[in-house]
Amino acid sequence: MKKFLVFVLALMVLASAAILAEKPSTTIALINAPMKVDGSAAKWKKAGIAPIAIDRASQVAIGNIYWLKAEKESALIYVAFSPKGINLTAVVKSPKGLKNNNVDGNIYNGNGIELFIGFDNSDPSRQLYTETDYQIGFSTGDYSKANGKYETKPSIWCYNLQKPVEGAKIVTKAEKGGYILDAFVPAEFLPGYDVRDGAEIGFDVGVDEVGDKGMLRKIQMTWSGDKDGWKVPSGWGKATIKK
């Protein structure tokens, strides 16, 4: 019986190790100063910073049966840190484009981006958010072609702090077959902000998508493929900050 229990425990350890080993990893650029928020991805190419691709079936965390494949629903997301804050630009393929009539903590229910960051990743298996973990949502806003204006403006919301991101900037633009979302989150809004060169952080990024019909979110794709990052940081991947 004892041998059996030891065997089971060994299997559990190996399984846990395998799960941790499967987490995706990437490098996030540390730049000297924030980039201009201008609704374009050209600045990233000029800086030589590559995007994070979210375009595989394994990355569809919610709504797999609704996903229209990468040609119609996918994203290239650029992220960089500077001493002043976080730049994020998403080039997204989306049938509905700038379609999010939600506000505040409900913006996940329309088109937009979610960013998950844990500046203290000493315990990557943590089950609860700590004071240095953040979930930040970016809404495309709801643009009316008929009226030529935003019926609901683009916005940025921090879910775990339960308030809008003060001092943030966001620009969204419709593109053929999708949209561009360009944003900046100031470091002073995030008490645990720590972007030292060489530091390893918990990291994930996702796309909320209403699909080709309806007004509410039907699909969520995440870089890690995990659907519970909004409540459990252990599902995030990791990133190394590098100049």
Outline the structure in words.
This protein has a single domain (26-242), classed as Immunoglobulin-like (Sandwich). 11% of the residues lie in helices and 38% in strands. The chain has helices at residues 2-21, 42-47, and strands spanning 25-30, 52-54, 60-62, 74-82, 85-93, 112-118, 133-139, 142-144, 149-152, 155-158, 163-164, 169-175, 178-186, 200-209, 219-222, 237-242. The strands form 2 sheets. Strands 1, 2, 3, 4, 5, 6, 7, 10, 11, 12, 13, 14, 15 and 16 form a 14-stranded mixed sheet that branches. The protein has a two-stranded antiparallel sheet with strand order 8-9. A hairpin with a 2-residue loop joins β4 (74-82) and β5. The longest helix is centred in the N-terminal third of the chain and has 20 residues, at 2-21.
Helical content (DSSP H or I, runs of 4+): 10-25%
Instruction: Output the CATH class name.
Output: Mainly Beta
SS class: mainly beta
Query: What's the gyration radius in Å?
Result: 18 Å
Helix tally equals 2
Pick out the low-confidence regions: 2-20
Count of distinct structural domains: 1
* Number of E strands: 16
Task: Provide the CATH architecture.
Answer: Sandwich
Mean pLDDT: 92
Largest sheet, if any?
14 strands, mixed
Topology-level CATH name: Immunoglobulin-like
Share of β-strand residues: 35-45%
SSE arrangement, N to C: HEHEEEEEEEEEEEEEEE
Beginning-to-end CA distance, first to last residue: 54 Å
Give the overall silhouette.
globular
List keywords for this structure.
243 residues; two-stranded antiparallel sheet; 14-stranded mixed beta sheet; mainly beta; Immunoglobulin-like; disordered N terminus; 2 helices; single chain
